[in-house]
Design a protein that fits this description.
With 604 residues, the protein is α/β, with parallel strands linked by helices. The chain folds into three domains: 244 residues, Glutamine Phosphoribosylpyrophosphate, subunit 1, domain 1, CATH 3.60.20; 188 residues, 3-Layer(aba) Sandwich (Rossmann fold); 140 residues, Rossmann fold (3-Layer(aba) Sandwich). It has 17 helices and 25 strands. The protein has an eight-stranded antiparallel β-sheet with strand order 3-2-4-1-10-9-11-15, with helices on one face. Strands 5-6-7-8-12-13-14 form a seven-stranded antiparallel β-sheet, with helices on one face. A five-stranded parallel β-sheet has the order 17-16-18-19-20, with helices on both faces. Strand 21, helix 15 and strand 22 form a beta-alpha-beta unit. The chain is globular, with a radius of gyration of 25 Å. It starts with a strand and ends in an 18-residue tail after the last helix. The mean pLDDT is 91.
């Protein structure tokens, strides 16, 4: 997602900032900007789209001698991707860049406007610089004003701020979003939100902890803990391998992306979870006027997210929902009626079969909506409306965080429609929103869990296949678990509804058939358990994933005891992703680049 860079030194500040942002492109963004403070004068440049646009804008801007600079790549959350909403954001004499979300920005913004402050953007970030300058007027110095501002902010953030009050200083803060400072023998100071921009410039780096804040000058790193106690920054040697840095030390991008899911889900929900309603600023409620049916169309992993969504739309929004495989839908001469909202789902927004079905729906006069991760993609440009999943760039071919964010968007959208149709009572809607807020915690990968799966994986390297089984939303999750395994391990795997096993597939049951059983406590547990017992009785090897220990299982992976089946869904999703990963690593496969597959399927 969003990326941050900063620099204090005598080199070409503009080029250092642009090079640093280029190293963060893999995280995904829709606009970028830099601000340079030199000789007590600010130069600020912003551009929508790729960095080449920002490079073009800054081609005549030259920096030499000492300067202070900050830069940012933005993925739109509060406010559309425009130059005004791009970072850095300006006060009267200060600039700020920020990753994360300021949860109480609306309250602070209202107070600032009432005091005469004029806002230029729709972002929550702009509040930070104005609040800082408000505090600056009654503080002894800029650091005191910055410290007071942090006390008044609620939410998650990584912040860099520069001001003419202290033109040789960068102020920083970290709470919930990554931030690193790097140094070298020339006394230069660099900031970034990951290691990659610092490689080749720094010899040592210090990783800030949540609550850390302070300031940096040419000759000093002043670091304070969240309790306000000054402490020494601990530096470690910086790796010289940029690919390793982009992976943040993980063995594969897929592994990193599994771990990132907890963070990107926060981005997906940012600005969309109210206290008693779901807010989608990017769509009009009139999109659902006259709509009696939703038709979801997708391929691969996105199809599994759509299947999951069908349960949620019918359960919460009480609206008829059907799901189509795009490659089949294109050629079967389907009947499309005007009371249907046609929804396509794609990580890239370029998937050929899905794009063609969208064109069909448009030609038939249906209202259309795309759930996508890439702004300005073909589907986003073509559809009547779009909701971005904000998963950031996904380098692993086998999709993980794209699926997690798609399901999260659909869960929110089902509640949004339920509120529009007035079919879900207030108490249940508030409960569902509270559950959504717990999803990021459910996606945190516990070391003990990952180690357990690593140990188990060595027992699942042979045999004649895998059955992943589940009921309700856990059936599409079973399909997704099987797809992940076959994609990267090249072992045969199938997903089935648990109740379907007895209708044929159980004939394959023997000790060399591995059954991965999804047994949620809060969704048809006894029925699913009975289906697994049928397989166990036929000597199938059972690996049960559940919060409740299952005595018929040969292996058992225990998830947390959750308040709702959807939280169990996300915890089990992480487990099946990790299981596929670890089996594949043991088999010696290139997890990120599996054979015969492409990340974006732009042909039939």
């Amino acid at each position: 997602m969003c990326g941050i860079v900063g620099y204090i030194g005598k080199q070409n500040t503009k080029e250092i900032l642009l090079e640093g942002l280029k190293e963060l492109e893999y995280r995904g963004y829709d606009s970028a900007g830099i601000a340079v403070l030199q000789n007590n004068h600010f130069s600020n440049f912003k551009a929508v789209g790729k960095l080449v646009n920002l490079e073009e804008k800054t081609k005549d801007f030259i920096t030499k001698d000492f300067a202070v600079g900050i830069g940012h790549t933005r993925w739109a959350t509060h406010g559309k991707p425009t130059e005004l909403n791009a970072h850095p954001h300006l006060g009267e004499k200060s600039y700020v860049v920020h990753n994360g979300i300021i949860e109480n920005y609306a309250k602070l913004k209202k107070e600032l406007i009432e005091s005469g402050v004029h806002f230029l953007s729709q972002t929550d970030t702009e509040v930070i610089v104005h609040q800082f300058e408000k505090n600056l007027k009654v503080s002894h110095n800029a650091f005191e004003a910055f410290s007071q501002t942090l006390k008044e902010l609620e939410g998650a953030y990584a912040i860099l701020l520069v001001t003419k009050e202290e033109p040789q200083t960068i102020y920083f803060a970290k709470h919930g979003s990554p931030m690193i400072v790097g140094i070298n023998e020339e006394g230069e100071k660099y900031f970034a939100s990951s290691d990659a921009p610092l490689i080749g410039h720094c010899t040592e780096v210090s990783y800030f902890e949540d609550g850390d804040y302070g300031y940096v000058t040419a000759d000093k790193v002043a670091l304070f803990s969240k309790k306000g106690e000054q402490r020494e920054a601990v530096f470690s040697t910086l790796s010289k391998n940029k690919l390793f840095a982009q992976k943040d030390g993980f063995r594969f991008f897929m592994e990193k992306e599994i771990y990132e899911q907890s963070t990107v889900i926060v981005d997906t929900m940012m600005g969309r979870l109210g206290d008693e309603e779901i807010v989608f600023d990017e769509i009009e409620s009139s999109l659902f006027d006259g709509i009696d049916e939703i038709k979801l169309c997708a391929c691969g992993t996105s199809y599994h997210a759509a299947l999951t969504a069908s349960y949620l739309f019918e359960r919460y929004a009480k609206i008829k929902t059907s799901v189509e495989i795009a490659s089949e839908f294109r050629y079967r001469e389907p009947v499309m009626t005007q009371n249907t909202l046609f929804v396509v789902i794609s990580q890239s927004g370029e998937t050929a079969d899905t794009l063609e079905t969208l064109k069909m729906a448009k030609n038939a006069g249906l209202k259309t909506l795309v759930i996508c991760n890439v702004d300005n993609s073909s589907m986003v440009r073509l559809a009547d409306a779009s909701i971005l999943t904000r998963a950031g760039m996904e380098k692993g071919v086998a999709s993980t965080k794209a699926f997690a964010t798609q399901v999260s968007v659909f869960w929110m959208l089902s509640l949004y429609v339920a509120k529009l149709k007035n079919v879900l009572n207030r108490k249940e809607l508030v409960r569902q929103i509270a559950l959504l807020r717990e999803v990021p915690t459910s996606l945190i990968v516990a070391d003990s869990m990952h180690e357990r799966i690593k140990r188990l994986s060595k027992r699942y390297l042979h045999g004649h296949g895998f059955f992943f089984i589940g009921r309700d939303v856990f059936f599409p999750l079973a399909l997704e678990g099987a797809l992940k395994l076959k994609e990267i391990s090249y072992l045969h795997a199938e997903g089935y509804p648990s109740g379907e096993m007895k209708h044929g597939p159980i004939a394959l049951a023997d000790p060399e058939l591995f059954t991965i059983a999804l047994l949620p406590q809060h969704m048809l547990y006894e029925k699913a358990k009975s289906n697994v017992e049928e397989l166990s009785a036929r000597d199938s090897t059972i690996c049960a994933i559940s919060p409740i220990e299952f005595d018929k299982a040969d292996d058992f992976i225990q998830i947390s005891s959750c308040a709702d089946y959807m939280l169990e869904f996300f915890e089990m999703m992480v487990v099946v992703q990790l299981l596929a990963l670890e089996i594949s690593i043991r088999l010696g496969n290139d997890v990120d680049m599996p054979r015969n597959l492409a990340k974006s399927v732009t042909v039939e």
